[in-house]
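Database export, one record per block. Field names are fixed; values are copied verbatim from the stored entry.
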Amino acid sequence: MRPDLAIIVPVLEEAPSLASRLQALEPLRRRRARVVVVDGGSRDDTLAIGHARADLALRAPRGRAAQMNAGAAACPADLLLFLHADTALPDRADALIVDACGGRFGWGRFDVHIESREPLLRIVAALMNIRSRVTGIATGDQALFVRHELFQRIGGFPDLPLMEDIAISRRLKRQGPPACLRERVTTSARRWERHGVWRTIFLMWRLRAAFFLGADPRQLARDYGYRPR
Protein backbone atom coordinates (compact mmCIF):
# COMPACT_ATOMS: atom_id res chain seq x y z
CA MET A 1 0.00 0.00 0.00
CA ARG A 2 1.30 3.44 -0.90
CA PRO A 3 2.29 5.30 2.29
CA ASP A 4 0.73 8.63 3.23
CA LEU A 5 4.12 10.16 4.03
CA ALA A 6 7.73 9.47 3.07
CA ILE A 7 10.46 11.15 5.12
CA ILE A 8 13.55 11.63 2.97
CA VAL A 9 16.78 12.07 4.96
CA PRO A 10 19.90 13.00 2.93
CA VAL A 11 23.07 12.03 4.81
CA LEU A 12 26.83 12.20 4.53
CA GLU A 13 29.03 10.78 7.29
CA GLU A 14 26.40 11.09 10.01
CA ALA A 15 27.23 7.85 11.84
CA PRO A 16 27.79 9.36 15.33
CA SER A 17 24.23 10.71 15.62
CA LEU A 18 22.16 9.00 12.93
CA ALA A 19 20.88 6.10 15.02
CA SER A 20 19.35 8.42 17.63
CA ARG A 21 17.91 10.69 14.95
CA LEU A 22 16.23 7.77 13.23
CA GLN A 23 15.01 6.39 16.56
CA ALA A 24 13.13 9.66 17.06
CA LEU A 25 11.17 8.92 13.86
CA GLU A 26 9.89 5.56 15.11
CA PRO A 27 6.51 6.94 16.26
CA LEU A 28 5.89 8.23 12.74
CA ARG A 29 6.87 4.88 11.25
CA ARG A 30 4.33 3.19 13.51
CA ARG A 31 1.73 5.53 11.99
CA ARG A 32 2.60 4.36 8.45
CA ALA A 33 5.21 6.95 7.48
CA ARG A 34 8.21 5.51 5.68
CA VAL A 35 11.74 6.72 6.39
CA VAL A 36 14.21 6.78 3.51
CA VAL A 37 17.92 7.41 4.16
CA VAL A 38 19.88 8.53 1.11
CA ASP A 39 23.65 8.42 1.52
CA GLY A 40 25.95 10.56 -0.60
CA GLY A 41 29.02 8.34 -0.34
CA SER A 42 29.88 8.21 3.35
CA ARG A 43 33.13 6.55 4.42
CA ASP A 44 31.81 5.67 7.87
CA ASP A 45 28.91 3.45 9.00
CA THR A 46 26.16 5.86 7.94
CA LEU A 47 24.67 3.62 5.26
CA ALA A 48 24.75 0.53 7.48
CA ILE A 49 22.89 2.43 10.21
CA GLY A 50 20.35 3.52 7.62
CA HIS A 51 19.79 -0.08 6.52
CA ALA A 52 19.25 -1.13 10.13
CA ARG A 53 16.96 1.67 11.26
CA ALA A 54 15.07 3.02 8.22
CA ASP A 55 12.54 1.50 5.85
CA LEU A 56 14.90 2.03 2.94
CA ALA A 57 18.53 3.10 2.61
CA LEU A 58 20.32 3.75 -0.66
CA ARG A 59 23.26 5.55 -2.20
CA ALA A 60 22.97 8.47 -4.62
CA PRO A 61 25.37 11.01 -6.14
CA ARG A 62 26.60 13.38 -3.43
CA GLY A 63 24.63 16.59 -2.98
CA ARG A 64 21.40 17.16 -1.10
CA ALA A 65 19.37 17.88 -4.24
CA ALA A 66 20.44 14.70 -5.99
CA GLN A 67 20.04 12.63 -2.84
CA MET A 68 16.57 13.97 -2.06
CA ASN A 69 15.40 13.44 -5.64
CA ALA A 70 16.66 9.86 -5.48
CA GLY A 71 14.82 9.26 -2.21
CA ALA A 72 11.57 10.65 -3.57
CA ALA A 73 11.85 8.45 -6.67
CA ALA A 74 12.59 5.33 -4.60
CA CYS A 75 9.65 5.71 -2.24
CA PRO A 76 6.58 7.35 -3.79
CA ALA A 77 4.09 8.55 -1.19
CA ASP A 78 1.19 10.97 -1.17
CA LEU A 79 3.33 13.47 0.76
CA LEU A 80 7.10 13.96 0.87
CA LEU A 81 8.99 15.47 3.79
CA PHE A 82 12.64 16.40 3.33
CA LEU A 83 14.45 16.29 6.67
CA HIS A 84 18.06 17.18 7.39
CA ALA A 85 19.85 14.57 9.47
CA ASP A 86 20.53 17.08 12.27
CA THR A 87 16.92 18.31 12.51
CA ALA A 88 14.22 16.96 14.84
CA LEU A 89 10.50 17.17 14.12
CA PRO A 90 7.82 18.48 16.49
CA ASP A 91 5.22 16.17 17.99
CA ARG A 92 2.57 14.96 15.53
CA ALA A 93 4.51 16.35 12.59
CA ASP A 94 2.86 13.82 10.29
CA ALA A 95 -0.65 14.92 11.26
CA LEU A 96 0.32 18.58 10.91
CA ILE A 97 1.58 17.97 7.38
CA VAL A 98 -1.50 16.00 6.37
CA ASP A 99 -3.77 18.74 7.72
CA ALA A 100 -1.82 21.49 5.96
CA CYS A 101 -1.83 19.72 2.59
CA GLY A 102 -5.41 18.52 2.92
CA GLY A 103 -6.67 22.00 2.17
CA ARG A 104 -5.47 24.70 -0.19
CA PHE A 105 -1.74 24.18 0.37
CA GLY A 106 0.37 21.93 -1.81
CA TRP A 107 3.57 22.47 0.11
CA GLY A 108 4.99 24.09 3.21
CA ARG A 109 7.53 24.15 5.99
CA PHE A 110 7.84 24.44 9.77
CA ASP A 111 9.22 27.26 11.85
CA VAL A 112 12.72 26.49 13.10
CA HIS A 113 14.47 26.58 16.46
CA ILE A 114 18.27 26.37 16.62
CA GLU A 115 19.43 24.17 19.49
CA SER A 116 21.96 26.33 21.32
CA ARG A 117 22.54 28.36 24.47
CA GLU A 118 23.80 31.23 22.30
CA PRO A 119 21.18 34.03 22.52
CA LEU A 120 22.11 35.35 19.10
CA LEU A 121 20.98 32.11 17.49
CA ARG A 122 17.49 32.57 18.91
CA ILE A 123 17.39 35.85 17.03
CA VAL A 124 18.76 34.17 13.89
CA ALA A 125 15.99 31.54 14.03
CA ALA A 126 13.29 34.15 14.59
CA LEU A 127 14.52 36.16 11.62
CA MET A 128 14.65 33.02 9.46
CA ASN A 129 11.01 32.30 10.29
CA ILE A 130 9.87 35.87 9.65
CA ARG A 131 11.80 36.10 6.38
CA SER A 132 10.37 32.80 5.20
CA ARG A 133 6.82 33.85 6.06
CA VAL A 134 7.23 37.16 4.18
CA THR A 135 9.04 35.82 1.11
CA GLY A 136 7.54 32.33 0.79
CA ILE A 137 11.07 30.88 0.60
CA ALA A 138 11.79 27.85 2.80
CA THR A 139 15.21 26.78 3.97
CA GLY A 140 16.25 23.17 4.24
CA ASP A 141 16.50 23.53 8.02
CA GLN A 142 12.73 24.17 8.13
CA ALA A 143 11.82 20.65 6.92
CA LEU A 144 10.11 21.35 3.61
CA PHE A 145 7.14 19.13 2.70
CA VAL A 146 5.19 18.81 -0.55
CA ARG A 147 2.51 16.76 -2.25
CA HIS A 148 4.08 14.08 -4.40
CA GLU A 149 2.19 15.04 -7.55
CA LEU A 150 3.28 18.67 -7.16
CA PHE A 151 6.89 17.63 -6.61
CA GLN A 152 6.77 15.64 -9.84
CA ARG A 153 5.04 18.43 -11.75
CA ILE A 154 7.80 20.94 -10.99
CA GLY A 155 10.59 18.46 -11.70
CA GLY A 156 11.82 18.00 -8.13
CA PHE A 157 14.89 19.74 -6.76
CA PRO A 158 17.11 21.47 -9.33
CA ASP A 159 20.43 19.64 -9.46
CA LEU A 160 22.43 22.28 -7.61
CA PRO A 161 25.24 21.72 -5.11
CA LEU A 162 23.93 24.54 -2.88
CA MET A 163 20.79 26.70 -2.55
CA GLU A 164 18.56 23.87 -3.72
CA ASP A 165 16.05 24.89 -1.04
CA ILE A 166 15.74 28.41 -2.44
CA ALA A 167 15.52 27.11 -6.00
CA ILE A 168 12.72 24.64 -5.28
CA SER A 169 10.85 27.23 -3.21
CA ARG A 170 10.84 29.51 -6.24
CA ARG A 171 9.40 26.72 -8.37
CA LEU A 172 6.78 25.84 -5.78
CA LYS A 173 5.72 29.46 -5.22
CA ARG A 174 4.63 29.62 -8.85
CA GLN A 175 2.13 26.87 -8.02
CA GLY A 176 0.85 28.43 -4.81
CA PRO A 177 1.92 29.83 -1.42
CA PRO A 178 3.46 27.63 1.28
CA ALA A 179 1.84 26.54 4.51
CA CYS A 180 4.02 28.24 7.13
CA LEU A 181 3.50 26.10 10.22
CA ARG A 182 4.30 27.75 13.54
CA GLU A 183 5.20 24.44 15.17
CA ARG A 184 8.97 24.30 15.30
CA VAL A 185 11.54 21.82 14.14
CA THR A 186 14.76 21.85 16.15
CA THR A 187 18.01 21.93 14.22
CA SER A 188 21.58 21.58 15.38
CA ALA A 189 23.78 24.64 15.87
CA ARG A 190 26.87 22.71 14.75
CA ARG A 191 27.35 24.77 11.58
CA TRP A 192 27.39 28.05 13.50
CA GLU A 193 29.43 26.66 16.40
CA ARG A 194 32.04 25.10 14.13
CA HIS A 195 32.74 28.26 12.14
CA GLY A 196 31.59 31.01 14.50
CA VAL A 197 28.14 32.58 14.68
CA TRP A 198 28.88 35.94 13.09
CA ARG A 199 31.16 34.45 10.45
CA THR A 200 28.48 31.94 9.45
CA ILE A 201 25.74 34.59 9.36
CA PHE A 202 27.77 36.88 7.11
CA LEU A 203 28.84 33.96 4.90
CA MET A 204 25.22 32.87 4.36
CA TRP A 205 24.10 36.43 3.62
CA ARG A 206 26.90 36.78 1.07
CA LEU A 207 26.19 33.42 -0.58
CA ARG A 208 22.44 34.06 -0.78
CA ALA A 209 22.96 37.52 -2.25
CA ALA A 210 25.39 36.11 -4.81
CA PHE A 211 22.92 33.34 -5.71
CA PHE A 212 20.09 35.83 -6.27
CA LEU A 213 22.46 37.86 -8.47
CA GLY A 214 23.20 34.83 -10.63
CA ALA A 215 26.49 33.48 -9.28
CA ASP A 216 27.53 29.93 -10.17
CA PRO A 217 26.14 27.60 -7.46
CA ARG A 218 29.17 25.32 -7.81
CA GLN A 219 31.52 28.15 -6.85
CA LEU A 220 29.19 29.09 -4.00
CA ALA A 221 29.30 25.49 -2.77
CA ARG A 222 33.11 25.58 -2.77
CA ASP A 223 33.00 28.87 -0.83
CA TYR A 224 30.65 27.21 1.68
CA GLY A 225 33.04 24.31 2.11
CA TYR A 226 31.25 21.50 0.27
CA ARG A 227 33.47 18.95 -1.41
CA PRO A 228 32.86 18.69 -5.17
CA ARG A 229 31.49 15.41 -6.53
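Remark 1: The chain has a mean pLDDT of 89.
Remark 2: The chain is about 45% helix and 20% strand.
End of record.
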